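ok new one. same drill as before - structure tokens go in, u give me an amino acid for every spot. 370 of them this time. try not to just spam alanines like last time pls lmao
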């Protein structure tokens, strides 16, 4: 039998040895379900990497592996630097993880649908004291269930998928710790802004909500559902400034949350005060008008924030992928360094998929319901 003092000496000796195993914990708490875009499937998740040792380590490469060790994606160099974020106030080198610190690696894999695995494993390469060391394993299950298919949340076309699905979009990186749990409720969220023929989201006075093309548009139920959350009465923002202090309670502005069934919920945020036509407990039909698009809460200009999540909470939830029955998407680019979006390329029809960051979206016609 080994005494407690001897056990401590063994652990201390191991931690000080350059040949000691890495004292690095790697976990994935993300529910991983494929997202489908025009031609590809995407696996989107986070790895939490915690240095439990007493020496700093640097992550130099991360590889995602499929069946029989097939490489599905790898991050190194500048791509790795952009994909990793240190928790709290990070240092100069985001790949360095000091003792007792944790970093989050944001992973985005682009795959052909036929390549989707039921499980991922990983190979992570670190440097400690100038010596390269590896962690092999870190299994991550993949839920191959098809995402829920929804109708359009809006009518018409020229809807820019602002902050839409991308590995470095603001929504993707908004990881918050609420009620003792770190989650990303906005992982697949989209801010829909309508773009005019000149590539601008407004015409006239940019400090008036009425100048924005999308202001006052009908917001639609994407599925037969039950209303489980409503907040109304928050005042309109002036574009570029907030009318109220932004808190957990006001961040979504006036909003509606629908229970879509099967543990899924849809959130519609930043609605015009007094425009919400439903109340908690109401049953709604797909295509039914819920409210009008506005500019309330954490919103710099009129737009619709839409997301699907696993709890009826805008922030304290995990954002999940979904699909539309059919949409058309078109790539965009910035022009002359201004916030002007010009269409480029031909529109692509997407069936049972989602738009990606800054694509222009055209929704199919939907029968009016009230």
């Amino acid at each position: 039998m080994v005494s407690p003092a001897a056990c401590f000496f063994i652990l201390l000796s191991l931690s000080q040895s350059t040949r000691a195993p890495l004292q690095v914990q790697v976990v994935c708490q993300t529910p991983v379900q494929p997202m489908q875009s025009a031609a590809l499937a995407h696996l989107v998740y986070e790895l939490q990497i915690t240095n439990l040792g007493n020496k700093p380590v640097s992550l130099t490469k991360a590889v995602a592996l499929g069946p029989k060790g097939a490489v599905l994606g790898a991050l190194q160099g500048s791509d790795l630097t952009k994909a990793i974020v240190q928790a709290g106030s990070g240092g100069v080198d985001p790949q360095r993880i000091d003792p007792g610190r944790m970093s989050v690696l944001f992973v985005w894999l682009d795959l052909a649908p036929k390549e989707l695995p039921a499980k991922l494993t990983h190979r992570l390469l670190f440097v400690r004291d100038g010596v390269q060391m590896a962690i092999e394993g870190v299994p991550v299950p993949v839920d191959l269930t098809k995402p829920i298919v929804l109708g359009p949340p809006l009518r018409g076309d020229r809807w820019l998928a602002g902050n839409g699905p991308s590995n470095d979009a603001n929504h993707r990186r908004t990881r918050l710790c609420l009620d003792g749990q770190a989650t990303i409720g906005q992982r697949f969220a989209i801010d829909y802004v309508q773009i005019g023929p000149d590539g601008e989201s407004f015409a006239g006075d940019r400090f008036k909500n009425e100048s924005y093309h999308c202001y006052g548009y009908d917001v639609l139920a994407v599925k037969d559902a039950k209303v489980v959350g409503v907040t109304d009465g928050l005042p309109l923002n002036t574009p570029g400034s907030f009318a109220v202090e932004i808190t957990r309670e006001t961040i979504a502005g006036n909003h509606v949350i629908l229970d879509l069934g099967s543990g899924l919920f849809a959130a519609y945020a930043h609605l015009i005060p007094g425009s919400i036509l439903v109340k908690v407990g109401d049953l709604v039909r797909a295509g039914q008008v819920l409210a009008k698009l506005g500019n309330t809460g954490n919103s710099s200009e009129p737009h619709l924030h839409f997301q699907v999540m696993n709890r009826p909470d805008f922030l304290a939830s995990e954002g999940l992928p979904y699909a539309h029955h059919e949409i058309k998407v078109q790539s965009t680019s910035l022009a002359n360094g201004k916030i002007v979006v010009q269409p480029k390329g031909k529109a692509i029809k997407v069936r049972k998929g989602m738009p990606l960051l800054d694509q222009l979206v055209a929704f199919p016609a939907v029968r009016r319901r009230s």
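The CA atoms of residues 199 and 341 lie 5 Å apart. and btw The mean pLDDT is 92.
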